[in-house]
Amino acid sequence: MERTQEREPGGRTPAPGALRRVQSFVNTIDLEGGQDRTGDVRSLRRWLLERELIAEGDSVSEGDLRLVIQVREALRALAFANHEGVPDDEAVRKLNRLAEGLRLTLRFEGDGRARLEPMLSGVDGAVAGILGIVYASMVDGTWPRLKACRRDTCQWVFYDHSKNRSSSWCSMSICGNREKARAYRLRRKE
Ligand SMILES: [Zn+2]
């Protein structure tokens, strides 16, 4: 069971369905506030256990932590690229390299649907599961709405529910206004 997520900045509604898990995965670090909820092996293990993404007996290593951080930041880069709709080449290359060792298989369900399921246990399986959700969301068309806030120092991942898919900031009242104020100051200096 996914735990109830903290309130999203700007009162935004989180991503729908399983994509919400990807959103909370990328947002485990608050780049601006510096708080990282999976900053060390212990906290990563706790985060994964709480979401039943690993089992009690699974170990978590420093290598696992590095994998998680790399996948998380590559996904953030893809979510950032969703503003323009042009994929980030470097993030794509990185994800392809990382995904090679994370085996997924096609599983048909009783309801006649199929989904990608991790073949490995532990952190590899957990990360593979996250990538499986990303893939499903690319297929069902929800992925382009997952965006990283445009303000460089923030990059919090939000779900753009707006009709024309035009949201740039996690919160208009915080990041939107700060960006506007910055642009105004820059213009005055010219
Ligand atoms: Zn923001």
What does this structure look like?
The chain has 190 residues and is mainly alpha-helical. The chain has one domain: Jann2411-like fold. It has a two-stranded antiparallel sheet with strand order 1-2. The protein has helices at residues 19-26, 41-50, 62-81, 89-99, 122-140, 172-189, and strands at residues 29-30, 35-36, 104-108, 114-118, 146-148, 157-159. It binds zinc ion.
What's a concise summary of this model?
The chain is mainly alpha-helical. Helix content is 45%, strand content 11%.
- Which fold name fills CATH's third level, the topology? Jann2411-like fold
Largest beta sheet: strand ordering: 1-2
Largest sheet: 2 strands, antiparallel
The radius of gyration is: 17 Å
CATH architecture assignment name:
Orthogonal Bundle
Q: What's the CATH class, please?
A: Mainly Alpha
Q: DSSP strand (E) fraction?
A: 5-15%
Give the overall pLDDT as a whole number.
92
Care to count the β-strands?
6
Number of separate domains: 1
What class do helices, strands and sheet pairing give? mainly alpha
First CA to last CA: what distance?
A: 53 Å
Write the layout of secondary structure elements.
Elements: H1 19-26, E1 29-30, E2 35-36, H2 41-50, H3 62-81, H4 89-99, E3 104-108, E4 114-118, H5 122-140, E5 146-148, E6 157-159, H6 172-189
Zinc ion binds at residues 149, 151, 154, 156, 169-171, 175.
